[in-house]
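Let us work through a complete example step by step.
Step 1: write down the sequence.
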Amino acid sequence: MDVLTHNFSLYGEGFLGTVELTVYASLLALALGVLMAGFRVAPVAPLRVFGTAWVTVLRNTPLTLLFFAVMLGLPRFGLVLPFFTFAVLALGCYTSAFICEAVRSGINTVPVGQGEAARSLGMNFPQTLGSVVLPQAFRTVIPPIGSTLIALAKNSAIAGSFSVTELLGTYKPLNERGYSIIWTFVWIALGYLIITLAISALFNVLERRWGVPR
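Step 2: predict the structure and record it as tokens.
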């Protein structure tokens, strides 16, 4: 317990950093993921190509390499932002590819007749997607999106290697202070467990309320 009680503020700062990183990156991933899913099923060929390229590149790029590309590449083009913002961009964009595929799979479960009926009423593609298709698809993609965001929370540990305050990075100063590395990681693991269980509980509530009965 000494590791935790004597360094509670350090753990707390790292824990809050991970929570903030997870929340902001999740919001970005959800927004981009839904947008790219719309692109992938759009009737406009260039949008489909862009959405497919986005998913293919990001899903097949190691997250650490993407962090290097964002942290070191964007400043070369004159875009200088705090490391935390860069980390949100890297995590959010990477996870958006997986959110996109989850949402697209949900869109494919919606009967084709739903879209045809919407178009017969004079709705255009954005209206059909936003008002008819996505609300129905959302009910089927709650579990996979929850699993993807849990993975995002754990992937946020990479940000600590890029000068971003987060939970895993607390082991470095604690190790320098001579604390047991085993207990240091026990409390770090507990912190991640709390975050992932909170996400899981949230999506369990959403699934019970809006999910498709099985």
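Step 3: interpret the result. The radius of gyration is 20 Å.
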